[in-house]
Amino acid sequence: MHTTTVLLVDDEAEFVEALAERLTARGLNVESAGDGETALRMSQAKVYDAILLDMAMPGLDGLQTLRGLLEINPDQQVILLTGRATLTQGVEAMKLGALDLLEKPADIATLVARIEKAATRRTSLQDERVQERVSDILRKKGW
After folding, report:
1. What global pTM score does this model have?
2. How many CB atoms sit inside 10 A of residue 1's CB?
3. Angstrom distances, CA of residue 40 to CA of 1, 37, 101, 108, 135
4. N or C: which terminus of the chain carries fewer CB neighbours within 10 A?
C-alpha cells in the first residue's frame, strides 16, 4: 500500500516539527524544507503527493515558490498555509494553481482531508498522462 508523502515547507522550525509529528501520527510520510529554495531542489529530486507551503517566508515567498514548484511539475498539488495572507494573495495563489489555501493553525482533520484530496488528484492526473501516452503510441502504430 502506498504511503502518502508530504513535503512541509515553512521557515518556522517549531511549527514544522509539531505539524510533522501530528501528520506522521496519522500515517503520513513527512519531509520538510525550511525555505523555498530547498523545497524546489527537493521537488526536482522527488514527487510528493502533496506540498504544504507557507505563504510568508524569507527569500522566496510562498507565491514565488509555488510558481517554481509548478514549473518543475505542473501536476504538483500545493496547499498553501498562511497566518496572514491577504485576499489578493489567496486569489493569485489559486489562479497560479494552488489546490487550496488554509489559515494557520489549520484543523488537523481538515488538513489531512485536503492532503488526501491532493494525493487522489495527483494520482488521477498522473493516470491521465499515462493514458495519453499510451493512446499516442497506439495511434502512431496504427493499432
Report:
1. 0.84
2. 3
3. 27, 5, 19, 25, 32
4. N
> Radius of gyration (Cα) for the chain, nearest Å?
16
DSSP state of 52: E
- The gap from C-alpha 96 to its chain's centroid, in whole angstroms, comes to 13
User: Which CATH number does the domain 5-141 belong to among 3.40.50.300, 3.20.20.100, 3.40.50.2300, 3.40.50.150?
Assistant: 3.40.50.2300
Rounded distance between C-alpha atoms, residue 18 and residue 42, angstroms: 21
Q: Given pLDDT bands bounded at 50, 70 and 90, which one contains residue 3?
A: confident
Q: How confident is the model at residue 137 (pLDDT cuts 50, 70, 90)?
A: confident
State how far the Cα of 64 lies from the Cα of 112, in Å rounded to an integer.
25
β-strands 78-82, 100-103 pairing: parallel
- pLDDT, one tens digit per residue, over 8-40 is 999 999 999 999 999 999 999 999 999 999 999
